[in-house]
C-alpha cells in the first residue's frame, strides 16, 4: 500500500469518525429553516425523528445528543434507561406545572377508611394539560379494594368499588373508551354522577381541577381533588380555611397554611449522555445566555438564539436552570413516585403480550411502563416466543403462555387452525394495504380462464400465507374447485410441481399438504444447502413476493400469486421491473397491458396488514379489549402522548405493529379492507366448522345414500 493510499484512507476514516461523533439536537418536531441556521456554525446538527423515544435511546447508548423532554416523557424514560442518560438542565416556565392536592372538610380525622359515604368531587379525565389517569386516581386506589370477581372486568370492579365507598359524587366525562361500557357504568352506578347537577356526568368542567372546589361549596361535596394553585385561592376566600383542610398521601391532615401535595409535575428537562454533559452545558451557556436564570452573557447572535430557542420550543417567559449533571432516574425519582409493575397488578390479572425478538420485547417493556404511568389496567407483561418467529408466537397463545400478539395477515389462516381469534385490527394506510394479484409472463398465450391454471406450477411467496388463502378463496368462489374444508388438499391437488416456501413446515398445522409436490422447484441461494430447499426464509431463492416473481421469470412456474405491496419500492415503481409480467384480473381476464399498474377491481384481494389475536374462549377477552382501547387513545390519538406505540423503535421499523398503523379498530368497524380480510377468514372458518372434508355438493352424499337405501327396502317390502 503506497503512502497516498494510506493518507487517503486516513482522511476517509477520520471524516467518518467526525461525522459519527457530531453533536446532535434530537427532536420529533423540528423546523427546517431554524435547523439550517443553527447548523451554520457546525457545532451541532439537527436530527429529526418520529418519536422522542429514539432520542432517549441514542443518548442512552452514549451518543453526543441533546434533547428536551416534557414531563411525561422524562417520567417514562427514567426507570428504563441507564445512568448514562443525564439531566443537565430544566426549563422553568412562568406558571409552575400542576401540583395535585386533596381538600377535605374539617372534622375529618384522617386515614382512608373514614372516606366511606363522603361526597367526592372528582375532576374527570379530560384536561387541557397532560394529567394522566395514574395521577387522577391516586386517591381512588388508596381508598378502594376490588372484589376480584372474575365475571367482571377490572374497570367494572373499580367503579363498583368507588360507588360502594363514596356517597353522592361527581366524576364528569367519559369513564371508558368503550362507549357501550361507559353508558352502562353510569347506569349501574348513578351515585357517582349525582353531585354533578342536572346534567349528571355530562356536565362540562371548564377548569376541572378548579371546578371541583366549586363542587365542594356549591353542591355540598365533602372531598375534592384539585391543584395547589387553585387551593391557595380557595383557602383565601371567606371561611374556607376554617371549614376545609388538606388530606395528605400518607393519610395525615394538614392545615391550609401548610399544604401537602400528591403529585408535583416535573419541568421540561434538558438531557444528554453523561460524557457529553459538560460540552452540552457549555454550548447552552454560550448560545442561550438570555434564557439562563443566571446572568451569564451570551456569545451568540440574537438571530441564532431565536432559532435555537425555537427548536427547543422555548417561550419568551421560559428560563433555563442549569443543574449539576445527574442521572435521569435519580432526578425524576427524587421528585415523583414511579409506579412499579408488581405493586400495580390488580387481582393477579396481567395481559401477557407475546413477542418474537428482543427489540420487540424492549418496546413492549416501554409500553408496559407507559401504561403504568398512564394508570391503565390490566398490567402488561412481555413474553418472548421460544423460536423467535410468528408461528412460535401463535403457539405461545395457544398453549396459554401468552394472551395476545399482533400477527400479520400471512398467518391469519394458521392462527385460526390454532384456535386463535381476532380482538382488534390495526388500521392500515392505503399505500400499505396488501394488494394481491395473479401474474403471468407477458408472453403467456395459454390462459383463457381460471380452469387453465389447474395442473400448472405456481410460484407462491409463502405457503399458508395471505396470497395462498386469497388464491384458494378465488378458486372456491368461482367453482373451479369443490367447497372442501381441506385447504391443504385443495391446493396440493390443483397446482402442478411448484415452489410454495414453508410447505414443509409441520408447525403450520395445515393437513393433507403434498410436501414433495409443493417443494419440487424450490432451491437455496446458498450452494451449501440441500438441492431442494423449501423453508420460508430468505435462503429460499423463491421466498416472498419478489422471490415468486424470480421463480416466474426463470420459468420455474407458469404463474405467481403475489402481494404488490411486498415488492421493494424500486421494483414496484421502476417500469422495467414489471413490464415483463401481465396481471390476471379477478374476473378471469388478462389485463390489456403489461405491468402492475391495475385498478383495485383487478386485485383478487386487498386487505389490511394483520390483526391482534387472542385465544378463543379466553376469560381475559373483555379486559384485553378495554386495555387495547385505552392504548389506542393514549398512545395514538392523544396529541400529548408520551409514547408513540405505532412508530418505529430504536431506529427499527415495524416493531410490535407495522409502522403503517395509525391506530386500532375493533370488530364493529366499517372499514372495507378490514371487512375483506374478515371475509377471507370467515370463508375458511365456515368451512372448517363443518367436519365433512369433502365439502360442496358432496355434503349430501351420505344422507342421500341412506334415503335411497330406505326407499329401496320399502319398495321391496311392498
UniProtKB/TrEMBL annotation:
GO biological process: iron ion transport
Transferrin-like domain residues: 351-682
Pfam families: Transferrin
SUPFAM superfamilies noted in UniProt: Periplasmic binding protein-like II
A GO-annotated cellular component: early endosome
PANTHER family: TRANSFERRIN, TRANSFERRIN 2
Protein name in the entry: Transferrin-like domain-containing protein
Organism from which the protein derives: Ceutorhynchus assimilis
Amino acid at each position: 500500500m503506497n503512502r497516498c493510499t494510506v493518507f487517503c484512507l486516513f482522511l476517509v476514516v477520520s471524516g467518518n469518525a467526525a461525522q459519527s461523533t457530531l453533536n446532535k439536537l434530537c427532536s420529533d418536531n423540528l423546523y427546517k429553516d431554524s435547523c439550517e441556521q443553527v447548523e451554520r456554525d457546525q457545532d451541532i446538527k439537527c436530527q429529526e425523528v418520529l418519536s422522542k423515544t429514539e432520542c432517549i435511546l441514542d443518548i442512552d447508548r452514549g451518543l453526543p445528543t441533546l434533547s428536551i423532554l416534557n414531563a411525561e416523557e422524562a417520567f417514562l424514560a427514567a426507570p428504563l434507561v441507564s445512568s448514562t442518560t443525564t439531566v443537565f438542565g430544566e426549563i422553568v416556565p412562568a406558571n409552575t406545572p400542576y401540583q395535585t392536592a386533596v381538600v377535605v372538610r374539617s372534622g375529618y380525622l384522617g386515614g382512608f377508611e373514614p372516606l366511606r359515604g363522603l361526597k367526592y368531587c372528582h375532576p374527570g379525565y379530560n384536561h387541557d394539560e397532560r394529567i394522566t389517569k395514574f395521577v387522577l386516581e391516586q386517591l381512588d386506589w388508596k381508598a378502594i379494594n376490588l372484589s376480584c370477581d372474575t365475571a367482571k372486568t377490572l374497570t367494572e370492579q373499580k367503579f363498583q368499588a368507588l360507588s360502594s365507598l363514596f356517597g353522592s359524587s361527581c366524576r364528569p366525562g367519559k369513564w371508558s373508551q368503550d362507549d357501550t361500557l361507559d353508558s352502562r357504568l353510569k347506569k349501574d352506578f348513578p351515585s357517582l354522577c349525582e353531585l354533578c347537577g342536572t346534567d349528571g356526568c355530562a356536565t362540562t368542567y371548564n377548569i376541572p381541577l378548579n371546578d371541583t372546589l366549586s363542587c365542594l361549596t356549591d353542591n355540598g361535596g365533602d372531598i375534592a381533588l384539585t391543584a395547589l394553585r387553585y387551593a391557595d385561592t380557595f383557602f383565601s376566600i371567606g371561611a374556607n380555611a376554617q371549614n376545609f383542610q388538606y388530606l395528605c398521601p400518607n393519610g395525615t391532615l394538614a392545615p391550609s397554611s401548610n399544604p401537602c401535595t400528591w403529585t408535583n409535575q416535573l419541568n421540561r428537562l434538558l438531557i444528554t449522555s453523561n460524557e457529553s454533559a459538560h460540552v452540552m452545558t457549555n454550548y447552552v451557556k454560550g448560545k442561550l445566555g438570555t434564557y439562563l436564570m443566571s446572568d451569564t452573557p451570551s456569545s451568540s447572535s440574537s438571530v441564532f438564539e431565536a432559532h435555537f430557542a425555537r427548536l427547543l420550543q422555548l417561550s419568551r417567559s421560559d428560563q433555563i436552570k442549569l443543574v449539576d449533571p445527574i442521572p435521569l432516574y435519580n432526578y425524576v425519582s427524587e421528585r415523583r413516585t414511579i409506579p412499579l409493575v408488581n405493586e400495580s397488578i390488580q387481582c393477579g390479572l396481567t395481559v401477557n403480550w407475546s413477542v418474537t425478538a428482543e427489540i420487540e420485547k424492549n418496546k413492549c417493556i416501554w409500553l408496559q411502563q407507559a401504561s403504568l404511568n398512564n394508570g391503565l389496567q390490566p398490567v402488561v407483561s412481555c413474553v418472548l416466543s421460544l423460536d423467535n418467529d410468528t408461528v412460535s408466537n401463535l403457539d405461545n397463545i395457544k398453549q396459554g403462555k401468552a394472551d395476545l400478539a399482533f400477527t400479520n395477515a400471512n398467518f391469519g389462516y394458521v392462527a385460526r387452525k390454532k384456535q386463535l381469534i381476532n380482538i382488534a385490527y390495526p388500521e392500515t394506510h392505503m399505500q400499505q394495504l396488501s394488494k394481491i394479484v395473479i401474474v403471468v409472463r407477458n408472453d403467456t398465450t395459454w390462459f383463457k380462464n381460471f380452469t387453465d391454471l389447474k395442473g400448472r406450477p405456481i410460484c407462491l411467496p409463502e405457503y399458508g400465507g395471505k396470497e395462498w388463502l386469497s388464491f384458494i378463496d378465488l378458486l372456491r368462489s368461482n367453482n373451479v374447485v369443490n367447497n372442501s374444508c381441506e385447504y391443504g388438499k385443495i391446493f396440493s391437488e390443483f397446482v402442478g410441481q411448484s415452489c410454495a416456501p414453508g410447505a414443509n413446515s409441520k408447525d403450520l398445522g395445515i393437513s393433507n399438504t403434498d410436501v414433495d409436490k409443493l417443494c419440487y422447484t424450490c432451491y437455496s441461494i446458498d450452494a451449501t444447502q440441500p438441492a431442494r430447499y423449501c423453508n420460508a426464509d430468505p435462503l429460499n431463492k423463491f421466498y416472498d413476493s419478489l422471490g415468486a416473481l424470480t421463480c416466474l421469470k426463470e420459468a420455474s412456474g407458469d404463474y405467481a400469486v403475489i402481494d404488490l405491496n411486498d415488492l421493494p419500492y424500486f421494483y414496484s415503481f421502476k417500469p422495467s421491473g414489471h413490464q415483463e409480467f401481465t396481471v390476471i384480473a379477478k374476473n378471469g381476464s388478462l389485463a390489456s397491458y403489461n405491468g402492475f399498474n391495475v385498478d383495485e377491481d383487478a386485485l383478487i384481494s386487498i386487505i389490511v396488514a394483520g390483526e391482534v389475536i387472542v385465544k378463543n374462549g379466553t376469560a381475559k377477552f373483555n379486559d384485553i379489549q378495554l386495555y387495547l382501547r385505552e392504548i389506542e387513545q393514549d398512545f395514538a390519538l392523544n396529541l400529548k402522548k408520551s409514547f408513540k406505540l405505532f412508530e418505529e423503535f430504536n431506529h427499527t421499523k415495524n416493531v410490535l405493529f407495522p409502522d403503517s398503523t395509525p391506530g386500532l379498530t375493533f370488530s364493529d368497524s366499517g372499514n372495507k379492507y378490514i371487512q375483506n380480510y374478515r371475509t377471507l377468514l370467515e370463508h375458511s372458518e365456515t368451512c372448517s366448522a363443518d367436519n365433512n372434508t369433502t365439502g360442496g355438493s358432496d355434503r349430501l352424499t351420505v344422507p342421500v345414500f341412506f334415503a335411497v337405501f330406505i326407499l329401496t327396502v320399502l319398495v321391496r317390502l311392498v
